[in-house]
What we know:
The structure holds two protein chains of two kinds. Chain A is an all-alpha fold.
Amino acid sequence: MxxxxxxxxxxxxxxxxxxxxxxxQPDEIMSDTAKEARARDLSRELRCMVCQxxxxxxxxxxxARDLRLLVRERIAAGDSDAQxxxxxxxxxxxxxxxxPRFNPHTWLLWFLPPLALxxxxxxLWMHARRRVKPGTGDDAxxxxxxxxxxxxxxxxxxxxxxxxxxx
Amino acid sequence: MIAEAGHYALVLAxxxxxIQSTLPLLGARWRDAALMNVARSAAIAQLMFVAASFAALVxxxxxxxxxxxxxxxxxxxxxxxxxxxxxxxxNHEGSMLLWVFILALFGGLVAIFGNNLPLSLRAHxxxxxxxxxxAFYLFILITSNPFLRMANPPIEGRDLxxxxxxxxxxxxxxxxxxxxxxxxxxxxxxxxxxxxxxxxAAWARWVRPWTxxxxxxxxxxxxxGSYWAYYELGWGGWWFWDPVENASLMPWLAGTALLHSLVxxxxxxxxxxxxxxxxxxxxxxxxxxxxxxxxxxxxSVHAFASDPMRGxxxxxxxxxxxxxxxxxxVWRASALKQGGLFAPISREGALVLNxxxxxxxxxxxxxxxxxxxxxxxxxxxxxxxxxxxxxxxFGPLFVPLLxxxxxxxxxxxxxxxxxxxxxxxxxxxxxxxxxxxxxWAWTGGGSTFAPLAIGLGLFVxxxxxxxxxxxxxxxxxxxxxxxxxxxxxxxxxxxxxFAHAGVGIALIGIVCETTWxxxxxxxxxxxxxxxxxxxxxxxxxLRQRQGPNFHEMVAQFTxxxxxxxxxxxxxxxxxxxxxxxxxxxAALLTRGASQLYISLGDTSGDGTIAVRIYHKPLxxxxxxxxxxxxxxxxxxxxxxxxxxxxxKPAKSMRGLQAAE
Lengths: 167, 660
């Protein structure tokens, strides 16, 4: 299925009419290493909007380059990380964030994984409680045969010739 | 002529599939052995016709018959032979044909090797298999016919997309499909069990090898695809949490859970209802993956299929099979009798915990993949869910999973002794703590997370080893006895050890690569030297080279470590003339499990070239882990009890001998 993802990149390149660009290019890198590191971290959280689920840090599309330069421009202008993010969201919408913000629209998205775990855990607990009835002790219920099984055992024992008879 | 024959063979396969999907069911109802046996011959004949159809398409591609649209659009007469063959499934129509070919292959294998199955179970399984096959034959014949001719054949084809012209295309899609489609067998067994209303430990023993085969291929397919993306895309990423990757990860997670719950069912006759549900889910997620990738729903412009007809058709197949099987499940599952009881702290309990965490992880990927689509359809809002989301939600689920993993095999069935298991894991825990402390000191406390995660990985590996050591009594009995016991240990125990150790190894690789990856991005001119992670890479020069259907620019680097010459690396950039597209061919230098990675960027007017060099410590462990898992699966598959097959009820009571 990576075939698809590879293809998508090709489409992004095709938009450039033959010239390829890179993920982060040498001429983009900021001289201040601390700021550059911040820019890289931010880039990993931002989506290249013409690509399929690629961050601008990975993408070869020209739009991604523009966004990378924009991020560095804002950082150079003294913005905090949150301000850079706000600036990009104001400009391009929530779509640009690879990690969706926590708001009513995404509650379900963020809550479902922990709810699934908790729900599964509770279901298991209920199930275990129902099957091993409290009071009778699990020892008894684990190792006691049901009436059915007792009857079957009787039949089997009756059907089998005893060892003394055979030898 | 070949095209028409291939087309006709596919139509005949559809006819056979329709027979196979009805007559055996009637036979099972009327208890007519002859009718039930129709399933067997129909499945084998179906396999032969689909194979003929597939062979016809391969022949068309190899002979470059451009009067066939599919060949014209995806091939070129100058293309190397191997890519002419792999190009068959490098496009929508061809890959769907491969899909049904593999489906028919599995059906045929059940028919051939299913002699020890009860007749009615085999009839049901093959009939369900044929329902799936019929739906997909119809899909291909109506919406995606690969044998379509064109009126005025052109002289030359449009060539295969250059990035696909790689050995990866020869291996990755067939492996992945063998995995995806392989889960159709456990699905068919589950539906057959629901229809018959009967399921027992023998059922689990029949299903397990098929599930294991599918799981092995899926594991290798995903790992292979990840490595392909790593070296082909040119920035060294290996997992992107992309919807198409998630589409293959979800069946893998469900399939892994299924493998473990099948163990419980086989040994203890418990978790029946849950195992049936997992069998249905694993294949449903495979179908969902096929839908996501093949319908073009993810990105309407970028996907292979831009024709909405295809999307709607697959969606219909998806709804009928998933909806139908889940309805059948709700209706019939309560009829299945519950099996053996167990205490929460027991082998069964540990496997239930494994299932809980794996299915939650699967649900997380499911939500993250489909939520943006659903939100856009319902409210029109566009949001993105990418790697940062999954790292936050999916990652934490694996911590308890991996921490609990070594305990599982050490617990007894029915009622385990947690303290005892912990005592037997003391050595593994100590090894992990030592590893953690050494790493901590060595890296100077740079990252808190990485040493902890690696410690966890070491614990998993050491835990897997101590399980086997415990079983053979290593260090407790004389070495000779231990070795003899090791020889007598069932292969599935060795399989468990390798597969579990593989998980720990993959984790270590992932953590090392993401934490200590170093990179060098600069414009270089011939004679310049790049220094990275102690290595020195000198750019010797650039030259042009002509390939069969491309020309490329090759750069040569000389790599030295501490002044000692190691090797030369030659990354290149290829330009494919027909499509005017370029690809980057990264150069890789493997040192142990670590790699140096160079890929080239643009040249500029002043004679410099943009170069990206990465040093990726222990990166190969990321793929070595899954390979080890698959190897473990293979060992388990060769276990005696699976080879011998399910136990048959004794013919007469006379066969029963008292144990002396």
